[in-house]
Amino acid sequence: QGILYVVATPIGNLADITERARKVLSEVDLIAAEDTRQTRRLLTHYGISTKTIAYHDHNETRLAPRLLAALDQGHQIALVSDAGTPLISDPGLTLVAAARERGLTVIPVPGPSAVICALSAAGLPSDRFLFVGFPPRLSGQRERWLAELGSERGTLVLYESGHRVVETLQALARVMGETRRVVIARELTKRFETFLSGPASVLATRLATDPEQRLGEFVILVEGSRAQGEVDRGEQERVLRILCDTLP
Ligand code: SAM
Protein backbone atom coordinates (compact mmCIF):
# COMPACT_ATOMS: atom_id res chain seq x y z
CA GLN A 1 0.00 0.00 0.00
CA GLY A 2 1.21 3.50 -0.80
CA ILE A 3 1.81 6.46 1.44
CA LEU A 4 0.54 10.02 1.14
CA TYR A 5 2.99 12.52 2.65
CA VAL A 6 1.70 16.01 3.44
CA VAL A 7 4.81 18.14 3.19
CA ALA A 8 5.29 21.71 4.44
CA THR A 9 7.56 23.96 2.35
CA PRO A 10 9.06 27.43 3.11
CA ILE A 11 6.87 30.55 3.32
CA GLY A 12 9.62 32.73 1.85
CA ASN A 13 13.04 31.82 3.15
CA LEU A 14 14.26 28.79 1.22
CA ALA A 15 16.56 27.82 4.09
CA ASP A 16 13.43 26.92 6.09
CA ILE A 17 12.93 23.53 4.40
CA THR A 18 13.41 20.59 6.78
CA GLU A 19 15.86 17.79 6.13
CA ARG A 20 12.99 15.35 6.24
CA ALA A 21 10.97 17.33 3.68
CA ARG A 22 13.92 17.26 1.25
CA LYS A 23 14.35 13.53 1.72
CA VAL A 24 10.66 12.76 1.23
CA LEU A 25 10.36 15.05 -1.81
CA SER A 26 13.34 13.41 -3.48
CA GLU A 27 12.24 9.84 -2.72
CA VAL A 28 8.50 9.80 -3.52
CA ASP A 29 7.20 8.67 -6.94
CA LEU A 30 5.15 11.80 -7.53
CA ILE A 31 4.63 15.28 -6.05
CA ALA A 32 1.08 16.67 -6.23
CA ALA A 33 1.63 20.43 -6.30
CA GLU A 34 -0.76 23.39 -6.19
CA ASP A 35 1.30 25.13 -8.89
CA THR A 36 3.82 22.90 -10.64
CA ARG A 37 5.93 25.81 -11.95
CA GLN A 38 6.31 27.29 -8.49
CA THR A 39 7.15 23.89 -6.98
CA ARG A 40 9.57 23.12 -9.81
CA ARG A 41 11.54 26.28 -8.92
CA LEU A 42 11.69 25.12 -5.32
CA LEU A 43 12.72 21.58 -6.28
CA THR A 44 15.40 22.87 -8.65
CA HIS A 45 16.82 24.96 -5.81
CA TYR A 46 17.19 21.80 -3.72
CA GLY A 47 18.42 19.68 -6.63
CA ILE A 48 15.32 17.45 -6.63
CA SER A 49 13.99 16.09 -9.93
CA THR A 50 10.86 14.16 -8.83
CA LYS A 51 7.91 14.28 -11.25
CA THR A 52 5.12 16.74 -10.38
CA ILE A 53 1.42 16.87 -11.16
CA ALA A 54 -0.94 19.85 -10.72
CA TYR A 55 -3.37 19.43 -7.85
CA HIS A 56 -5.34 22.59 -7.03
CA ASP A 57 -8.78 23.90 -6.04
CA HIS A 58 -10.13 23.57 -9.60
CA ASN A 59 -9.14 19.96 -10.34
CA GLU A 60 -9.16 18.52 -6.82
CA THR A 61 -12.32 16.45 -7.24
CA ARG A 62 -11.25 15.17 -10.65
CA LEU A 63 -7.67 14.37 -9.72
CA ALA A 64 -8.17 12.93 -6.22
CA PRO A 65 -9.51 9.53 -7.53
CA ARG A 66 -6.44 9.17 -9.82
CA LEU A 67 -4.06 9.87 -6.97
CA LEU A 68 -5.97 7.49 -4.68
CA ALA A 69 -5.73 4.77 -7.34
CA ALA A 70 -1.96 5.34 -7.55
CA LEU A 71 -1.73 5.09 -3.76
CA ASP A 72 -3.78 1.85 -3.86
CA GLN A 73 -1.20 0.47 -6.28
CA GLY A 74 1.57 1.18 -3.78
CA HIS A 75 2.90 4.50 -5.02
CA GLN A 76 4.25 7.09 -2.66
CA ILE A 77 2.95 10.61 -3.22
CA ALA A 78 3.87 13.93 -1.59
CA LEU A 79 1.32 16.73 -1.41
CA VAL A 80 2.71 20.28 -1.33
CA SER A 81 1.19 23.75 -1.72
CA ASP A 82 2.81 26.92 -3.07
CA ALA A 83 4.11 27.83 0.37
CA GLY A 84 3.76 26.62 3.93
CA THR A 85 1.59 23.76 5.08
CA PRO A 86 -0.94 22.18 2.69
CA LEU A 87 -4.62 22.39 3.80
CA ILE A 88 -3.94 25.56 5.82
CA SER A 89 -5.90 27.97 3.57
CA ASP A 90 -4.59 25.77 0.77
CA PRO A 91 -5.86 22.76 -1.25
CA GLY A 92 -5.59 19.15 -0.16
CA LEU A 93 -8.53 18.38 2.12
CA THR A 94 -10.41 16.30 -0.49
CA LEU A 95 -7.39 14.06 -1.03
CA VAL A 96 -6.38 13.72 2.61
CA ALA A 97 -9.96 13.04 3.77
CA ALA A 98 -10.50 10.43 1.04
CA ALA A 99 -7.16 8.77 1.78
CA ARG A 100 -8.05 8.55 5.47
CA GLU A 101 -11.49 7.16 4.63
CA ARG A 102 -9.86 4.40 2.56
CA GLY A 103 -7.54 3.53 5.42
CA LEU A 104 -4.45 4.67 3.53
CA THR A 105 -1.39 5.89 5.42
CA VAL A 106 -1.15 9.68 5.57
CA ILE A 107 2.06 11.05 7.06
CA PRO A 108 2.52 14.74 7.89
CA VAL A 109 5.97 16.22 7.34
CA PRO A 110 5.73 19.41 9.42
CA GLY A 111 7.43 22.71 8.73
CA PRO A 112 6.58 26.38 8.19
CA SER A 113 3.11 27.86 8.32
CA ALA A 114 2.49 31.61 8.40
CA VAL A 115 -0.12 31.32 11.17
CA ILE A 116 2.26 29.70 13.68
CA CYS A 117 5.24 31.75 12.50
CA ALA A 118 3.32 35.01 13.13
CA LEU A 119 1.87 33.86 16.44
CA SER A 120 5.29 32.80 17.74
CA ALA A 121 6.72 36.31 17.47
CA ALA A 122 3.74 38.71 17.71
CA GLY A 123 3.73 38.98 21.48
CA LEU A 124 -0.02 38.38 21.81
CA PRO A 125 -1.42 35.55 24.00
CA SER A 126 -0.76 32.24 22.28
CA ASP A 127 -2.24 29.79 24.81
CA ARG A 128 -5.55 30.00 23.02
CA PHE A 129 -6.03 31.21 19.45
CA LEU A 130 -8.48 30.88 16.59
CA PHE A 131 -7.20 30.74 13.02
CA VAL A 132 -9.90 31.94 10.64
CA GLY A 133 -8.09 32.16 7.28
CA PHE A 134 -9.02 34.90 4.79
CA PRO A 135 -11.89 37.33 5.58
CA PRO A 136 -14.73 37.55 3.02
CA ARG A 137 -13.96 40.04 0.24
CA LEU A 138 -17.28 41.91 0.27
CA SER A 139 -17.41 44.59 2.94
CA GLY A 140 -20.86 43.72 4.36
CA GLN A 141 -20.00 40.04 4.66
CA ARG A 142 -16.62 40.89 6.12
CA GLU A 143 -18.13 43.05 8.87
CA ARG A 144 -20.70 40.38 9.79
CA TRP A 145 -17.93 37.77 9.81
CA LEU A 146 -15.80 39.94 12.12
CA ALA A 147 -18.81 40.71 14.36
CA GLU A 148 -19.37 36.96 14.84
CA LEU A 149 -15.74 36.63 15.93
CA GLY A 150 -15.98 39.57 18.31
CA SER A 151 -16.62 37.48 21.42
CA GLU A 152 -13.82 34.95 20.77
CA ARG A 153 -11.64 34.87 23.88
CA GLY A 154 -8.43 33.70 22.21
CA THR A 155 -6.18 35.63 19.83
CA LEU A 156 -7.68 35.79 16.33
CA VAL A 157 -5.35 35.03 13.43
CA LEU A 158 -6.34 36.10 9.89
CA TYR A 159 -4.66 35.88 6.52
CA GLU A 160 -4.91 38.87 4.21
CA SER A 161 -3.47 40.15 0.94
CA GLY A 162 -1.84 43.53 0.44
CA HIS A 163 -4.80 44.63 -1.72
CA ARG A 164 -7.29 44.37 1.11
CA VAL A 165 -5.25 44.77 4.28
CA VAL A 166 -6.23 48.43 4.85
CA GLU A 167 -9.96 47.70 4.37
CA THR A 168 -9.76 44.78 6.77
CA LEU A 169 -7.97 46.88 9.41
CA GLN A 170 -10.62 49.60 9.02
CA ALA A 171 -13.39 47.02 9.40
CA LEU A 172 -11.66 45.63 12.49
CA ALA A 173 -11.56 49.11 14.02
CA ARG A 174 -15.28 49.62 13.31
CA VAL A 175 -16.42 46.21 14.55
CA MET A 176 -14.09 45.49 17.45
CA GLY A 177 -13.27 49.01 18.64
CA GLU A 178 -10.01 50.66 19.47
CA THR A 179 -8.92 48.99 22.69
CA ARG A 180 -7.67 45.67 21.31
CA ARG A 181 -4.05 45.25 20.38
CA VAL A 182 -3.57 44.28 16.75
CA VAL A 183 -0.34 43.01 15.21
CA ILE A 184 0.37 42.78 11.50
CA ALA A 185 3.12 40.40 10.44
CA ARG A 186 4.29 41.15 6.90
CA GLU A 187 6.63 39.19 4.63
CA LEU A 188 7.54 36.65 7.30
CA THR A 189 10.97 35.02 6.90
CA LYS A 190 11.71 37.34 3.95
CA ARG A 191 13.94 40.38 3.47
CA PHE A 192 11.27 42.94 4.39
CA GLU A 193 9.79 41.06 7.33
CA THR A 194 7.96 43.63 9.48
CA PHE A 195 5.88 43.46 12.65
CA LEU A 196 3.70 46.49 13.42
CA SER A 197 1.38 46.70 16.40
CA GLY A 198 -1.22 49.10 17.72
CA PRO A 199 -4.96 49.78 17.52
CA ALA A 200 -6.53 48.73 14.20
CA SER A 201 -7.31 52.31 13.09
CA VAL A 202 -3.72 53.48 13.71
CA LEU A 203 -2.36 50.56 11.68
CA ALA A 204 -4.93 51.21 8.92
CA THR A 205 -3.79 54.84 8.63
CA ARG A 206 -0.12 53.82 8.72
CA LEU A 207 -0.58 51.36 5.86
CA ALA A 208 -2.91 53.66 3.89
CA THR A 209 -0.28 56.39 3.90
CA ASP A 210 2.78 54.19 3.35
CA PRO A 211 2.48 52.10 0.15
CA GLU A 212 5.65 50.11 0.98
CA GLN A 213 3.95 48.75 4.08
CA ARG A 214 1.18 47.35 1.89
CA LEU A 215 3.52 45.23 -0.20
CA GLY A 216 3.67 41.48 0.24
CA GLU A 217 1.82 38.95 2.35
CA PHE A 218 0.17 39.55 5.69
CA VAL A 219 -0.97 37.82 8.83
CA ILE A 220 -3.23 39.92 11.07
CA LEU A 221 -3.46 39.01 14.75
CA VAL A 222 -6.13 40.48 17.02
CA GLU A 223 -6.13 40.29 20.78
CA GLY A 224 -9.05 38.17 21.96
CA SER A 225 -12.02 39.46 23.95
CA ARG A 226 -10.81 37.73 27.12
CA ALA A 227 -7.57 39.71 27.14
CA GLN A 228 -9.58 42.82 26.41
CA GLY A 229 -11.93 41.91 29.28
CA GLU A 230 -8.93 41.92 31.57
CA VAL A 231 -7.98 45.37 30.35
CA ASP A 232 -11.56 46.52 30.95
CA ARG A 233 -11.57 45.04 34.46
CA GLY A 234 -8.32 46.87 35.18
CA GLU A 235 -9.91 50.06 33.93
CA GLN A 236 -13.04 49.41 36.06
CA GLU A 237 -10.87 48.86 39.13
CA ARG A 238 -8.97 52.04 38.45
CA VAL A 239 -12.21 54.02 38.16
CA LEU A 240 -13.56 52.36 41.33
CA ARG A 241 -10.38 53.25 43.23
CA ILE A 242 -10.66 56.86 42.10
CA LEU A 243 -14.31 56.91 43.16
CA CYS A 244 -13.52 55.35 46.56
CA ASP A 245 -10.67 57.79 47.11
CA THR A 246 -12.83 60.75 46.28
CA LEU A 247 -15.93 59.63 48.22
CA PRO A 248 -16.28 61.09 51.72
N1 SAM B 1 -0.52 27.23 3.53
C1 SAM B 1 0.07 28.50 3.88
C2 SAM B 1 0.57 28.44 5.32
O1 SAM B 1 0.73 27.37 5.86
O2 SAM B 1 0.80 29.51 5.91
C3 SAM B 1 -0.88 29.64 3.63
C4 SAM B 1 -1.36 29.75 2.22
S1 SAM B 1 -2.47 31.07 1.93
C5 SAM B 1 -3.01 30.76 0.31
C6 SAM B 1 -1.42 32.43 1.66
C7 SAM B 1 -1.56 33.49 2.75
O3 SAM B 1 -0.80 33.10 3.89
C8 SAM B 1 -1.02 34.86 2.37
O4 SAM B 1 -2.00 35.63 1.66
C9 SAM B 1 -0.70 35.46 3.71
O5 SAM B 1 -1.89 35.93 4.33
C10 SAM B 1 -0.19 34.23 4.47
N2 SAM B 1 1.26 34.11 4.28
C11 SAM B 1 1.92 33.17 3.59
N3 SAM B 1 3.24 33.39 3.62
C12 SAM B 1 3.43 34.52 4.35
C13 SAM B 1 4.57 35.29 4.74
N4 SAM B 1 5.78 34.94 4.36
N5 SAM B 1 4.37 36.39 5.50
C14 SAM B 1 3.13 36.76 5.88
N6 SAM B 1 2.02 36.08 5.54
C15 SAM B 1 2.17 34.98 4.78
TrEMBL record:
Residues 4-201 form the Tetrapyrrole methylase domain. Its main location: cytoplasm. The keyword S-adenosyl-L-methionine applies. One of its GO terms (molecular function) is rRNA (cytosine-2'-O-)-methyltransferase activity. One of its GO terms (cellular component) is cytoplasm. It is an enzyme of class 2 (transferase). The keyword Oxidoreductase does not apply. Its EC number is 2.1.1.198. It catalyses: cytidine(1402) in 16S rRNA + S-adenosyl-L-methionine = 2'-O-methylcytidine(1402) in 16S rRNA + S-adenosyl-L-homocysteine + H(+). Keywords: Cytoplasm, Methyltransferase, rRNA processing, S-adenosyl-L-methionine, Transferase. Belongs to the methyltransferase superfamily. RsmI family. Catalyzes the 2'-O-methylation of the ribose of cytidine 1402 (C1402) in 16S rRNA. This is Ribosomal RNA small subunit methyltransferase I. The gene is rsmI. The chain holds residues 5 to 252 of 298 of the full protein.
